[in-house]
Each structure stands twice: as structure tokens, then as C-alpha cells.
Amino acid sequence: MKELEDRIRQEGVILSDTVLKVDSFLNHQVDTELALSIGREFGRLFADRGITKVLTIEASGIQFAMAAGIALKVPFVYAKKKKAVTLAEQVYSASVHSFTRQETYQVSLSRNYLGPNDRVLIVDDFLATGAALVGLVQIVREAGAELAGVGCVIEKGFQEGRRLLEDMGVHVHSLARISSMAPGEIHFVDNDAP
Ligand code: G4P
Ligand code: NA
Ligand code: NA
């Protein structure tokens, strides 16, 4: 998605060979027009796939899941990182190991909002190690729902997330795929390439 790649080049701050900050327009302050464009792009990519629900994880996937839900005219739901005690028995859950934070946490989603009749598009801001997304895929499977695919705003193609998801048989589509980066330098994969 050219508009997104241009914005990353202009405003992204590359902190190291692996960490990209996009706080000024995606992750902390959110450019609402850009978020809606991102949603429309997911809508275009996953049109005619019979999507009934968009699923993400709090916090920074929410604005893109909402935008995709608007484009596809379906609800979105987000998995929570803190377990509400009152929900104990009525949730799907998965444990996620965050490599960047070196901690394992539970993600959960009420059983009321996902089930066997759903066809799901998972959306998130970053595809890095893929840990959180694998957790969401597990939740979709636990719900007996069908997974249409995963849409990520930014993929760091040099990390293992895509391979992990594809090994699970999941179709992944990212709007900006970074092949490599270093402070002051960023390269994207041609998104039309297979
Ligand atoms: P992931 O690939 O499944 O997201 O897992 P990972 O453990 O690698 O990433 C941990 C957190 O760091 C995730 O946010 C992820 O979105 C974020 N992240 C990974 N790489 C980058 C990066 O280069 N830049 C930025 N800005 N974030 C990155 P999270 O823990 O789910 O938190 P939240 O921000 O969504 O609340
Ligand atoms: Na995230
Ligand atoms: Na994040």
C-alpha cells in the first residue's frame, strides 16, 4: 500500500535493526483518515470472502480492526490481555509468549462473540514474531469458526511471524512488508510479489 509505505518512510523512526516506531500516525497518535484507508484496503483484499467478524487484540490493533469492520460492514471484536474474573468459564483463551517483553500472558475472548457460524478476518498492527497472532488463530479454532486470513498493517519480513502462521495453514496479507531496515534506511518487499 503505497500511501502507507510513504508515510513510514517520512515519519517512521527506526530505533534499531528490529524496532520501528510509528507513534506519530499509527500506534499512539492515530491518523484517522489513514486508518480508514487501511480498513478499506483490508476490505478490498478480503471482499467476497464471506467475512462475518474482524478479530484483533488490544490495544493497538483496535483502530485497524474497526476500520476493516466498517469497510466490510461487520462487527469487530478484540481479545483482552487481562482476564476478567467474572468471565472465567465463558471465554476462549490462549497463552502468548512475548519475545520482546520476555513474558507470557493470557488472551481471552468471550464465547458470546465468536462461534462456529463465523468466518473471521484477523487484523493487527505489527507482524513481528507472530506470537500474538498465533494466539488469535488458536482462539478462532477453539471457537470452531472459519479463518479467512490474517491482515497486518506492517510486517517485519525478517522476523519469523509469517512463516509461523503459514506453517499453521494461515493466509497472511500485509499492507507494508519491510524486508530490512537499519537506522536511516528501510526497504520494502514488492507487495505484488507472491
Ligand atoms: P507479535 O509479532 O505477535 O506482535 O509479538 P511480539 O512479541 O513480537 O511483539 C510484542 C509487541 O510489540 C506487540 O504489541 C507488537 O505489536 C509490538 N511490536 C513488535 N515489533 C514492533 C515494532 O517494530 N514497532 C512497534 N511499534 N511495535 C512492535 P503488543 O504487546 O500486542 O502491545 P500493544 O501495543 O498492541 O498494546
Ligand atoms: Na499489536
Ligand atoms: Na503494539
From TrEMBL:
SUPFAM superfamilies: PRTase-like (SSF53271)
Subcellular location per the Swiss-Prot or TrEMBL entry: Cytoplasm
CDD domains (alphabetical): PRTases_typeI
Top-level enzyme category: transferase
Binding-site residues for xanthine, renumbered to this chain: 20, 27, 156
Molecular function GO terms recorded: xanthine phosphoribosyltransferase activity
Pathway membership, UniProt: Purine metabolism; XMP biosynthesis via salvage pathway; XMP from xanthine: step 1/1
Family, similarity comment: Belongs to the purine/pyrimidine phosphoribosyltransferase family. Xpt subfamily.
Function of the protein: Converts the preformed base xanthine, a product of nucleic acid breakdown, to xanthosine 5'-monophosphate (XMP), so it can be reused for RNA or DNA synthesis.
Protein name: Xanthine phosphoribosyltransferase
Natural source organism: Paenibacillus thailandensis
Gene: xpt
